[in-house]
Predict the 3D structure of the following.
Amino acid sequence: MTEPITVLAVDNESGFADLTATMLEREQSRFEVTAVGGATEALETLDAEPIDCIVSDYDMPGMNGLEFLEAVRERDPDLPFILFTGKGSEEIASEAIAAGVTQYLQKKPGSDRFTLLANQITNAVSQYRTETELRESERRYERTLTTLHETTRDLMRAGTKAEIYQATVDTAGTILEVPIVSAYQFEPTAGSLSHVASTAETRQRLTPEPSIGRGDGLIWEVFSEGEPAYYPTVDAEASGASFEPLSRSELIVPLGTHGVVAAASEHTDGFDETMRELLYILGANTEAALDRAEREQLLREHDRTLTEQNEELTRLNHTNEIVRAINRGIAQASTRQDIEQTVCERLADTDRYLCAWVASSEETPPSPIVWEGIDVTYIDRLRDEGTLAPESTLIDRALETRSVQVVENVLDDPEWNDRRKGALTYGYQTVIAVPLVDAEREYGACVVHAPQANAISESEREVLGELGETIGHAIRSVERTQAMLTDSRLEIQLECASQRLLFNRISEAIGRTVSLEGIIDRADETVLFVSIDDPPVDGVLELATEWAAIESISVVSAGEDASLFECTTAPTPFIEALREYDARVTAATTTNGSTAIVLSVPGQIDTRSLIESIQERYPETELTARRETTSTTSVPELESRLEDRLTDKQRAAIQAAHYSGFFKWPRESTGEDLAAALDITPPTYHYHLRAAQRKLVSMVFDDDSN
């Protein structure tokens, strides 16, 4: 032992008390002896300062040695008390031992008695201190266990992993009585340990690494091994956690797959076995709490997912009911306006949406033409603002992408600040623009307002997108039906000087006038019958091998002044534009790099949109003439009847015969020429041609007779 030992020498003979103090300090330099002249003064001294051992005489006035011992035992039952008396007898010794005296020693002449007394004091104090430390250790251990039990309950009640980690490091700092404790959580995605919690003292003194990567120091090593580890002496570089002291010890406990808790001491071998065992227990409890929190989190996420799925299913079922009602309504509609009105009424007549309106793409900018559920003040404002209206931008984006566009919350979107007051007035927050399109044309958009923010899910967006396509097909269907029921058509004449136009390229390549005799338009290819004045035949045929735009060219008939060629191409942008608007070419002649084109367009088609569509593809195009024609017989009706009766092959056979001059006299082409042009055998061609002729004649004569 190296610590000082404080001794209180009590004797009514002050001279002997001083002698005792002097002799004891001479025997042991560690002794610090205070001499007093009686029990009363000794008790006052005992209350005023810490004493390790009392050496007292027996025969003292007022309070003898045993009475003094009894008073001392009331204060400290275990404090070493040596009765050092000149009055010796077996009776006194027996009473002293019975009263709980530590040692009994008679005063005798000679220095050896003080040597013996010094040894007794040293042994008694050593035993006293050991027992005191043991009792304190036991009490501390009990307090620690109590703290662990309380922490375990807190851990099991903690709602989040962050709370668990923080409770763990705080408890570790308390029970281990060390300044540095930190916790690290494993991040599977990053494959690293990230710092999540530290004790308050750790945060004041250190800045732990925010992340510990694979193979980076002792902490990662312990985590990867999965077993607790104690390092009595480590240096800062080995730790991997930026714990500053260069000489210290570390205790690292893995928390399963969740992470680790690491404690560091500023002293070498700073953790005894009890401290290590306590942190192991705390680590096991923390791991169990983290497992529970993770399970509960998974359950909460699962419940939340189920709730969201149920809500989504409910919304989707509601939307599907709306879509079915719209489909039933538009199936009975006979005009485009009826379709658009039905759509708006069905959408506005639900709890899901507040109002709906349709803007036509045939107007620039698109503006409302049909609406339901909203007053005309809103509509007038849209029309007044034109392209400046945010709704106009939303519609343009929907038509450009041909997909549903959504403003999730008008109140939070800076682009919709001007609509904030209106949204609060009418009670909507979400705005949806549904493009009305079919495979070829864009008819406009249906704009829907919903009361809640973020009201449209991804599934509902897809359903609305499909609804927009259904409405687009329905509009196209009624327009085609109306075209069949009317004889009125528009004839427009265009002049196109674009080098992208195939006719211009052919004319420029061979330096001749090119005239279109007819077109057979198929889904995946287009067959053109073109007449070329005095052509260089070989030069024309070589175009098929030189140009990717032409799949094949063949001679149908050769005359003295002109020859007829069959040219097969993939559908060109020009043909795609005609398909989109149900228009057809009635004539086309190319001279000097420019083509004069005559188109026949159904009366209800917006010719401006058609021309703009062609000009987008071929900018060097101008409108040169426009006139309305009315045939005495219904051409659309005749075409419809032909389409119903003729197969695709029969129609192609009779069109080829007509365009190639097969029915002229003398014939300008033969069946063999046409069979080669259509890439079929002559017998097959004649079979399809005869069948088409028979049906055409039967349609004329038999229907007339009926």
